[in-house]
Amino acid sequence: MTTHDEQPVLKVEHLYKSFDERPVLVDVSLALHKGENLVILGRSGMGKSVLIKCIIGLIEPDEGTIYILGKNTTHLDHKALNEVRQKIGFSFQGSALYDSMTVRENLTFSLKRNLNIHDPQQLDAMVRDALRDVGLEHAIDQMPSELSGGMRKRIGIARCLILKPEIMLYDEPTAGLDPVTSSEINQLILEVKQKYHTSSIIITHDITCAKTTADRIIYMQDGRVYLEGTFEALDRKDDPQLETFFNYFKIQHQ
Predict the structure, then answer these.
(1) Is the pTM higher than 0.85?
(2) What is the domain range of residue 11?
């Protein structure tokens, strides 16, 4: 059960980011609570992916502060920032697997680099456990090119889970997937939360993903936090900005 009595595990305060003088994030503030799935919903080009990349440290904001697990990451040196990053799993939109490595090698590389684990038996056990959790233990010796889009998504998530993260960040987890595979990824996100007790931010423009996975939704418009609430609360709002999303969802489920 999600509780807001504790300090947020992640907090963003007054974040700004522009590219070539074009504002992409404008005074964005949000909090992620322990055990919560927070969906950041919005159309493409509204700053969602830039926000998540600022949180993980891949993009430096122009202004603002980011707190992760109580630490102000905007003022950490490289070593300290990497220590915080090890507690965060980032599921990239394109899965970001190494094409020249097998599934096993993709996952063991992460363990060797981040946790300095090199014992073959320990590596094999940890890889198999992570793959079992995403339903793909049978793919352990396959190459990424042999996998479907949905399978690559699952392997990308397994590579995050193998490090036992406290926070998961999902960037467009269902992008480019058919409805059945999208539904499977949505269910996996819920299973990850239950088994690993993660707190997650899910970036998406997929209203079904938002409905399925969210405890709470932030709707972004023009780089700003426009509305916030549960799916049901936002669905009840008479707001033209939300109409396209919620009408599409209703048509899909008639």
Answers:
(1) yes
(2) 1-87+168-178+199-254
